[in-house]
Design a protein that fits this description.
- The protein is an alpha/beta fold.
- It has 2 domains: about 1-65; about 70-420, Purple Acid Phosphatase, chain A, domain 2, CATH 3.60.21.70.
- Helix content is about 15%, strand content about 20%.
- The chain contains 6 helices and 18 strands.
- A 7-stranded mixed β-sheet has the order 10-11-12-15-17-16-18, covered by helices on one side.
- β5 (about 80), α1 and β6 form a beta-alpha-beta unit.
- The two termini are about 35 Å apart.
Length: about 425
């Protein structure tokens, strides 16, 4: 049962009876509120009732949100970041849990973009873990997070674990969220070339099985509208915030070719990253947008090298777009085509936000510095992690001419949240 009103006392609220929350979807549920007034603060409360009992209503859980104004009458503030509970750094009760979520809430954002790695299905959480300087990090632990996620129950348990944190729950009750995914919702650096045969932690070696289970758990827990029955669920979507802002959420995981050497000279299925259908969708939506600002929410940066070990020939294998300095090759060919299409269409005020690399940075891309030059300059902003290990900085790839205007990275790799290198934008 959902009630919502424009005042916190809930006098004369609107009331909706939502769908049943059953074990089929791990007791998750969602309902759509329609007819909301623009530019309005709403108060909402949710309770569950047992349909098999006459007096089975549970306790109310309250929250609030603001709807988008249809006038450019006030600025829009949003947070973004990514990479939650990675590398075994979980909910530490000694620190009061994931306090970065409380810091984000206090910024009073209109919404939050989670840029992916909403869980770390491949990072077991133990009761204690040694941090820098010999300090001991203590974790809350559940059965599902004590090993790598393989079963549907374990993937679901990863999402439930994060919601055990009071900071995360308070944040979720007051800040609308836009989620996208990356690799750790399934397993590290997954693609069609992922090989788990040598990873003793996994008894399920078929990555396709893990993808099916992990994606189901993600969709059950992600705060997003499901498509009508018979249509494939998808992560990429456009969300409008009035005349000032449109947000274009990308999926850089579902349609990519296998991670590999990434130095092909012509485009093919092997070099796909967004995939052609998603690229054409993005260009069409950008061209149709009348918003002043177009924010592209990506789950990986464009010009940072993100390695993924070696291929069978001993050559570097790449997880993201970049593949080292030089002309556009491999996945960069698709990115070059996208950036050129944006320039040719005269689309202005395009800004990219992302996470993934576990440090923060501001990158300015310009054809004046680039090897590939057929695009307009743009900014990319990187944030994260959220209660995970800190890494970086990653090497720049000069193909699209990135310049580091700002960055802050840890002094050593996989520093714990104790060290403070946790970032949101």
């Amino acid at each position: 049962v959902v009630e919502y009103a424009t005042e916190p006392g809930f006098r004369n609220p609107m009331r909706i009876s939502g769908p049943l929350a059953t074990s089929e979807a791990d007791l998750t549920a969602r309902t759509l509120l329609t007819g909301l007034l623009p530019g309005q603060q709403y108060h909402v409360r949710v309770a569950f009732e047992n349909p098999e009992q006459r007096r089975g209503m549970g306790a109310w859980m309250e929250g609030s949100f603001r709807t988008t104004s249809q006038q450019a009458d006030r600025p829009i503030r949003f947070d973004w970041s990514g990479d939650t509970v990675g590398q075994g750094w979980g909910i530490n009760p000694d620190l009061g849990g994931m306090r970065i979520y409380e810091a984000m809430r206090q910024r009073n954002p209109d919404f939050f973009i989670h840029s992916g790695d909403t869980i770390y299905a491949d990072s077991p959480i133990t009761a204690e873990q040694k941090a820098e300087d010999g300090r001991i990090w203590r974790n809350l632990v559940t059965e599902e997070v004590s090993k790598v996620a393989e079963t549907l129950k374990e993937f679901r348990g990863r999402h439930r674990y994060n919601m055990m944190d009071t900071n995360v729950r308070r944040f979720a009750s007051q800040v609308p969220q836009i989620w996208q995914w990356d690799d750790h919702e399934i397993t590290n650096n997954w693609s069609a070339s992922k090989d788990l045969s040598g990873d003793a932690r996994y008894t399920e070696k078929d990555v396709r099985v893990l993808v099916a289970r992990g994606s189901r758990a993600f969709l059950e827990n992600a705060p997003m509208r499901w498509h009508r029955q018979g249509l494939a669920e998808r992560v990429h979507r456009k969300i409008g915030y009035g005349p000032l802002l449109d947000v274009f959420v990308l999926d850089m995981r579902s349609f990519r070719g296998p991670n590999g050497y990434n130095r092909e000279t012509t485009e093919s299925a092997a070099t796909a990253f967004l995939g052609n259908a998603q690229l054409e969708w993005l260009v069409a939506e950008l061209m149709a947008s009348r918003a002043t600002w177009k924010v592209i929410a990506a789950d990986m940066p464009i010009g940072l090298g993100v390695p993924d070990g070696k291929d069978a020939q001993g050559r570097p294998r790449w997880e993201a777009i970049a593949n080292g300095d030089g002309p556009a090759l491999g996945r960069e060919l698709e990115t070059a085509r996208l950036l050129t299409r944006i320039r040719q269409a005269g689309i202005k005020n395009v800004v990219w936000v992302t996470a993934d690399v576990h440090y923060c940075a501001a990158h300015h891309y310009s054809p004046e510095r680039a090897v590939y030059k057929d695009f307009d300059p743009f900014w990319e902003f990187v944030a994260g992690p959220l209660n995970a290990g800190s890494f970086g900085p990653n090497p720049l790839d000069n193909t699209f001419g990135p310049h580091v205007a700002f960055q802050k990275a840890p002094t050593a790799q996989n520093m714990s949240p104790f060290a403070g290198y946790q970032f949101f934008g």
